[in-house]
Amino acid sequence: MLVLLPPSETKSEGGDGAPLDLGALSFPELNPVRARVADAVVALAGDLAASLTALGLSDRQVDEVERNAELFGSPTRPALERYTGVLYDAMEVGRFTKAERRRADRRLAVASALFGVVRAGDRIPAYRLSGGTVLPGLGGLRGVWRADLEKTLSTVDDLVVDLRSGAYANLAAIPDAVTVRVVTEDTSGRRKTVSHFNKAYKGKLAAALATTPREPGSTRGLVSVAKAAGMRLEPTDRRAFDLVVEP
C-alpha cells in the first residue's frame, strides 16, 4: 500500500542529514525533472523581488527565499519530519514505535512540487514551492511534472490511497487510486464536505494506515483499519470513500 500525502507550506528547520542528494531519493526515474525544477528554484532565489512574486510571499518571508537559495547545501531530514502543519501534527509521528516508523517510511509518500513524490524516509531540505507556482523558464508545474509523474505513479503495484489536496492532485492523475473525502452527516443522512478539519482527519487516517501491523491490500482492508482506529470509512463508488466524522 502507498498512502500519498499532500505536502505543507510550512517546514521544520535544520536537520542532521547530509545535503540534498537526488540520487538517494525514491523513484529515481524522476531525477531529471527534479534537477530541472531544483535548478530553476535556486536560480529564481537569486532575484529576491521575482522570488517573492512567483512564490506568493510577503516582504516578511525573505527567509523562505534564502532557504531556496541554499537548497543544495542545507541539511536534510526525513520528509515525514520535514513537513509540518495540521495534517502532520495529527499523525503524531513522534509517538510511533520503531516498528511503526519502519512501516510508515515504507507505506507513506508525500506529493511535492519540487520532488514530484518522495517516500516518508527520504531526506530532503527545507524549501518553499507550491503546486500552483509558475517558475520562470519552466512555466506551470503541472506541465513540468504531469507526464513523468503520472508514468511513475501508474506503475506502483500496491494499493494507492490518494490524500493529496487539489493543487498537488492536479500535477498528476492516478486513475486507480482510492480517494477519500472528509464529511459530516446530519440526522437526515445528508453529507457535507469538511473544510476546516479536513487535514486533521486525513492525518489521523494516514497514521492508522501507516502503522497497522497488517498492511491492507484491498479497499475492504482500508475500511477495517479505519474501523479499528475508531473511524467510519464508507464507499461512495468503487474507488471513492467518505470519512464520516462528527459535526
Q: What's the layout of helices and strands?
A:
Blueprint: E1 2-5, H1 31-45, H2 48-55, H3 62-69, E2 77-78, H4 79-82, H5 86-91, H6 98-107, E3 108-112, E4 116-119, E5 123-124, E6 134-135, E7 139-140, H7 141-154, E8 160-162, H8 166-169, E9 178-185, E10 191-193, H9 198-211, H10 219-228, E11 232-235, E12 240-245
Parallel strand pairs: 1-3, 1-8, 8-9, 9-12
Antiparallel strand pairs: 2-5, 3-4, 6-7, 9-10, 11-12
Give average pLDDT, whole number: 96
By secondary-structure content and strand pairing, the structural class works out as alpha/beta
Helix content: 25-40%
Number of E strands? 12
Strand residue content: 15-25%
Shape: globular
The total domain count is 1
Termini separation comes to 30 Å
Largest sheet: 8 strands, mixed
Which consecutive residue ranges, at least 5 long each, have pLDDT under 50?
none
Q: Helical segment tally?
A: 10
Secondary-structure element series: EHHHEHHHEEEEEHEHEEHHEE
The radius of gyration over CA amounts to 18 Å
InterPro entries: YaaA
Pfam families: H2O2_YaaD
Protein name: Peroxide stress protein YaaA
GO cellular component, one term: cytosol
Keywords, separated by commas or semicolons:
about 20% strand; two-stranded antiparallel sheet; about 40% helix; eight-stranded mixed β-sheet; alpha/beta; about 250 residues; single chain
Describe the protein's architecture and organization.
It is a single chain. This protein is of the alpha/beta class. It has one domain (2-245). The protein has 10 helices and 12 strands. The protein has helices at residues 31-45, 48-55, 62-69, 79-82, 86-91, 98-107, 141-154, 166-169, 198-211, 219-228, and strands at residues 2-5, 77-78, 108-112, 116-119, 123-124, 134-135, 139-140, 160-162, 178-185, 191-193, 232-235, 240-245. Strands 1, 3, 4, 8, 9, 10, 11 and 12 form an 8-stranded mixed sheet that branches. Strands 2-5 form a two-stranded antiparallel sheet. Strands 6-7 form a two-stranded antiparallel sheet. It is globular, with a radius of gyration of 18 Å. The two termini are 30 Å apart.
